[in-house]
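Quick one, probably user error.
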């Protein structure tokens, strides 16, 4: 019997375990399916330099307490601080992100087309906010931004039928102010709030995975890799591995996808049926050694004729490296001769219409059994790693008393 059993050694599980150890709680065990820890934030040496096999992950500067905790494992002087340079390849032009703030970088004719479209957007004219995803995007941003960028880009990331997604998660998109866009075009500078990762840290000598590797090493024998969890018994707070080994605990914290359990005991049938309704996407990371003539850190690619949706320009943020990697939704990936590729089956939780209700009921029931969901997959939320760390630290405070 273990006091606290943690399923998954990604950022959520590693943070929670290390934070609990800092509080003197050592009766814990972390179980990880893969041969190494880190989850979507793992790195691998490719072509002589680190490549982040889970996609583009960076340490944001917005949560000082998170960074203070992480710098205890990888000190601040081992990181470079960058001002974000992200761009969108749209209408045959390269424009800084966010698009609505940087239309002024396009040619005059295209600027006029975008301005006319934004001036008639529903959120500008005051029409009723629609319910369907695609209609909501048009209402929020206007037809031109929607058709050139937002709709094709989201289809590439999440699937062709965007209307199966809810709109509840889109409220973080800023209103497009026609006045601000017009002013930016006249003054030739952006007038908008900075996007996430406006400033970010990236290791000087390593990939992002080095941070999580060090956190894993700090756990010693409290971390067990190659431990594939297949069954969960909520009443007994017991898990079973693929090899038949079982563990029981006072508290189970799960950071792994709910639909990867082959069997869950002690859960009502309606909740089990709802788990099968949860959707996610897989992403293939593929590496190219060519250096690109750009200063951008990453580039969004909405063109539906290109299978990938984003490029990470490795040589612009990873010292001593070359080349770039592409991120492509699994279903869109075109097999070909590449220098390196890696499939992440679980990349993004999908914000389907029914997800909030499903997860609200699932999380409430699990917590009533002392099984605590945490992080991107435990909560089925598209959390960045810095937010996951913050949530894990809060949970450690609760469990550590």
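Nope, works fine. Designed sequence:
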């Amino acid at each position: 019997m273990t006091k606290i059993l943690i399923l998954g050694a990604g950022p959520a599980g590693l943070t929670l375990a290390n934070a609990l150890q800092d509080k003197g709680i050592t009766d814990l065990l972390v179980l990880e399916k893969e041969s190494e820890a880190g989850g979507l934030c793992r790195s691998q040496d490719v072509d002589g330099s680190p490549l982040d096999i889970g996609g583009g992950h960076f340490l944001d500067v917005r949560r000082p307490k998170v960074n203070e905790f992480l710098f205890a494992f990888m000190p601040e002087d081992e990181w470079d601080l960058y001002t974000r340079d992200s761009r969108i390849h749209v209408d045959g032009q390269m424009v800084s992100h966010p698009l609505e703030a940087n239309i002024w970088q396009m040619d005059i004719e295209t600027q006029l087309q975008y301005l006319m479209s934004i001036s008639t957007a529903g959120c500008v004219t005051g029409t009723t906010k629609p319910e369907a995803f695609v209609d909501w995007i048009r209402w929020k941003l206007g037809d031109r931004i929607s058709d050139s960028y937002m709709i094709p880009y989201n289809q590439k990331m999440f699937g062709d039928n965007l209307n199966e997604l809810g709109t509840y998660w889109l409220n973080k998109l800023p209103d497009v102010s026609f006045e601000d866009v017009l002013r930016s075009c006249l003054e030739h500078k952006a007038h908008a709030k900075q996007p996430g990762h406006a400033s970010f840290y990236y290791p000087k000598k390593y990939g992002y995975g080095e941070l999580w590797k060090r956190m894993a090493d700090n756990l010693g024998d409290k971390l067990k890799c190659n431990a594939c969890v297949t069954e969960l018994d909520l009443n007994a707070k017991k898990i079973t591995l693929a090899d038949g080994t079982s563990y029981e605990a006072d508290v189970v914290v799960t950071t792994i996808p709910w639909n990867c359990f082959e069997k869950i005991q002690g859960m009502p049938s309606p909740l089990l049926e709802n788990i099968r309704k949860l959707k996610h996407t897989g992403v293939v990371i593929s590496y190219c050694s060519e250096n690109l003539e750009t200063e951008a850190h990453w580039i969004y690619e909405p063109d539906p004729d290109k299978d990938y949706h984003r490029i990470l320009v490795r040589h612009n943020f990873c010292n001593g490296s070359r080349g770039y990697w592409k991120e492509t939704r699994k279903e869109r990936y075109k097999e070909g001769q590449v220098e390196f590729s890696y499939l992440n089956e679980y990349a993004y939780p999908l914000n389907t219409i029914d997800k909030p209700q499903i997860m609200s009921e699932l999380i409430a029931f699990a917590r009533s059994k002392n099984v605590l969901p945490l992080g991107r997959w435990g909560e089925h939320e598209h959390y960045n790693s810095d937010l996951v760390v913050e949530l894990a630290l809060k949970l450690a405070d609760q469990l550590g008393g």
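The chain has a mean pLDDT of 94.
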